[in-house]
Amino acid sequence: MEKISTGVLDSFWKQKPADSLEERTRMDGGDEAICELSGFDTLQTETMAGMFLDCPFLQGEQELLAQMANLSEQYEGDIQKKALEFNIFKMAGIQKKETIMCRVLYGLLEPNGTHGMGIECLKLFLEDVLQLGDLEADEFRTAKIFREYVIPDSARRIDLVIETRYRFLPIEVKIYAEEQEGQCYDYYTFAMGRMAQRAGNKSWKLYYLTLDGRLPSEKSTKGSVECCRLIRPISWGAEIRQWLGHIESMTENQNVKEVLKQFIAAILSLANQNEMGFQKILNELLWQPGNMKSAQLIAKGLEAAKTEFLRNLYYEIKKEADVLYADRYLEVYPLDEQITKYHKGRDFPGLTYQIHSFNSENKHGEKETCILAMHFQIEWRSEIGFVLIRKPNEPSEPYDYEEQQSVDDGTRKLAFTFLKTERTKSGEPEGWWLDWFYVPTFQQEAVDAVPNFLHCNDAYYQLYDKAGKKAFIRSVINGFSYLYRQVEWKEIEDASCHES
User: Residue 442's CB: how many other CB atoms inside 10 A?
Assistant: First the structure.
């Protein structure tokens, strides 16, 4: 019987035409093993493959994919040529670091800055970027600019703040850093208090600066309707780029002009604005008889293909991890269900291996059983580390997600006694995580080498290469091995004896 191997299905797996889908999904147990893992039997899989291969539109889809592949290859070549252009921001990787990007913005907004333009940069920013239409003349002269504004009696620091006689304007900057629990809500609450001290009843917003102008998540706003109403999203690629262009056209200082040009180019690269030319050509390709219909069919299958690749990746990782830790595997949440929901933005699939179960007492004086475990998951990026899990009171009860995000500090300290790494013991609490790092870099900085499964960076596409996928799986297993070596097994044995 015919196998799923080449043709249009293989085209879904970007950047790897050399090996077949059959080769990518084969495990030691053969076709039956992978079908068992993915929830299909062999007959179902072969039937589905036959239906797709017999599709009357197959030839049209293959032709369109071939044209798109050629276009993509040309586009990638153009990008590589442009990458050779000298740009100090790109060379230093500055455009991906929020702290340094904020410093550049701060330097331009500061009226006494070395740009030599006085209040003009600030004035344009308030008008063009923040879109304040009720500005008073003295607001520019009295404005103060703050970087990493510290909220009293809190660990919170607002990236940028513009403060005038009439307004307190917080700006939260996000490039690649993940959102923190209640971050925007805390900024909103503090800003409300500061605005209450000012006369004039002037308009104000909490500004959220991102690559694409998105809004913060419910996690950051705590779902507060009042908070969300006062948030205005702004983007590097639109408002900031236009503002910088306006400044560049006004200044006569050639040094400032050159720096601004490079800063704008770095932002365009960061925000993927250089894809606009590619999109224009792609539009011309798709706006042809039959092509849009073929594109729709491909688009419908793309998410399913990515989901099945993710499922295959997880089960290959699990197969190798189970060789070492099968007796420790703990399904906190149904893995297949999490994988299915991932590309809909509803869940983060994870593999969890229990290290130790111990009794503790929470801040309410209630007894609870907690589990120290090794955990691999894919949120936007792939990460691995130690987590602390609250065990349900009854075996039949499911694990409650919200409860896992609020582990008591006392329980956290007790869990640290079973770990011997200084890094872990000094780590900042973050939900149920005790310590974590990205895979495959084993660092906490979100660099390009870490696959982004949501926005699909180059590191993600490399996973579709047989060697790239194998190397990634090996790095995950190495991550588990590293974590396992950081466990104080003697402490666990002593604690177990004491419990008995």
Answer: 12
| Interstrand relation of 144-150 and 157-163 (parallel, antiparallel or unpaired) | antiparallel
The helix (H) or strand (E) run that includes residue 221 is helix 218-221
Handedness of CA 384, 390, 395, 401 (dihedral sign): negative
Q: Are 414 and 360 in contact (CB under 8 A)?
A: yes
DSSP string for 441-499: T-SSS--TTS-BTTTT-HHHHGGGSHHHHHHHHHHHHHHHHHHHHTB-HHHHHHHHHHH
How many whole angstroms separate alpha carbon 101 and alpha carbon 86?
A: 19
Coil, strand or helix at 119: coil
Residues contacting residue 359 through CB under 8 Å, at least 6 positions apart:
367, 368, 369, 370, 499
Pairing of strands 350-361, 367-378: antiparallel
Please name the residue ranges forming H helices in 288-447.
291-325, 335-342, 401-404, 409-416, 422-425
At 396, is the secondary structure helix, strand, or coil?
Answer: coil
Residue with tokens 């959102």, as numbered in its chain:
179
The dihedral over CA atoms of 154, 156, 162, 168, expressed in degrees to the nearest 10, equals -50
Angle in degrees, CA 55, 60, 63, rounded to 5: 130
pTM beyond 0.70, yes or no? no
What is the chain's pLDDT, residue by residue, as a tens digit (500 residues)?
333 333 332 333 333 333 333 333 333 343 333 333 333 343 343 444 444 444 544 556 566 666 666 656 655 555 545 544 556 666 555 555 667 788 889 999 998 888 889 889 999 999 889 988 778 777 878 889 999 999 998 889 999 999 988 899 999 998 877 788 999 999 999 999 998 887 667 888 999 998 878 889 888 999 888 898 899 999 888 888 889 989 998 988 888 888 888 888 777 776 664 455 556 656 766 777 777 777 777 777 888 889 999 999 999 999 999 999 999 999 888 899 889 888 776 678 999 999 988 887 766 677 778 889 999 999 888 999 998 888 776 666 666 655 555 666 777 788 888 887 654 444 444 567 888 899 999 988 878 899 988 878 889 999 999 999 999 999 999 999 999 999 988 767 666 655 54
Question: CA-CA distances (angstroms) from residue 51 to 10, 47, 48, 87?
Answer: 15, 6, 5, 51
248 burial level (CB within 10 Å; 0-12, 13-18, 19+): middle
- Read off φ and ψ for residue 170, nearest 5 degrees: -85, 140
Whether the Cβ atoms of residue 377 and residue 350 lie closer than 8 Å to each other: yes
